[in-house]
Amino acid sequence: MAISSTIVFIFTSLLFLSGYVLQQQTVRSLQATIKPQPIAPPPPSPVLAKHFGTPPGHSFFDKYLATNRPKGGWAKVAYVQLVREHLHVCNALLLFAALEEQESMGQRVILYPKEWDQQVSGQKTIDPQVETSKRLLREAAKRYRVMLQPVDSMIKIGSGGSIFPLAGLLSLTAYNRLIYLPPSGLVLNTSGLDHLFTLPMTSDFLGISAGPVGEATAPSVILLSPSKESFQATLASLDSETYDEETFLSKISLLADLPEDQVHVIATTSSLRSEDDGFLAAEFMDSTSYVQISDPDILGPEYDTSREVLASARPKKPQPRKAWQDLYEKYRQQRMDVCGLDLEPAPKLAVHDSDVYSQQT
User: What is the DSSP string of 110-179?
Assistant: First the structure.
């Protein structure tokens, strides 16, 4: 009897110990399962240096802009477009679309005739051109962060017409430096243009011409240094009886020479005719910041020009001709993509810009 009790006691003890061991293992497993796991810190986000829309070949501008800022910083410089014709509103939109896409740091301003606002608010039936221009201006403000500023005419021209002169841009004294790009043209790369904000200026106006060296041509890019004094002095010097904007532009001092790194910052389609056999279209498109699309036999890239006129106006050599055709096609495509506009039918008679504006007003 004593032996049987001992055996029962031993097996009972072993059973108890086995259960206890299994219980402890289960408890530890549960603790390990429900215990909060340490959260690994997230991998650091890659830090990208601010760029200015830089394709290959523009390292000079990248390095320069990384260490040099315009006077007063980027908030004190601006690209400005003065649109007097409905035709040129889309061109301004193309400019600011490129600046936005390539992340230019310069501010953006469009000046347009105040009469367009008055026509919209004061008429039941709105002129289709005014309606289109107002739509494009709203797009510029919404999509490309452009400041819109309606302006009154200041100078009388011709027979009863009036305009806001280019000199009126000097009144934008909120900025230390302005860049004005006369229509029409394409921005291919903003780095070279942004660099122009840092150039020293000794006068209120400074022009850069893309025409042949030594040839008297109107500036393709105009730099301005606004101030109240310069605006008042320049405006007082303008004769409203004889004012002509082409004459005014011809008097703007041109930058005598560009540093070697900036030789192809500005170009014009008309100069492609004189390029030699060493010209490469791809290299030109890559190294040029702004191309003014202007040819003596063509009214402008906005118009649906006949094939015969285009064929006679384009360069004869293959590579310059390719660049020339690519620029006209690029402008046509961007006009459709950005503005939703097809090419304008070519008018039967070419009219000067100021005459068109005076007729509209």
Answer: EEEEHHHHHHHHH-SS--HHHHHHHHHHHHHHHHH-PEEEEE---EEETTTEEE--GGGGGG-TT-SEEE
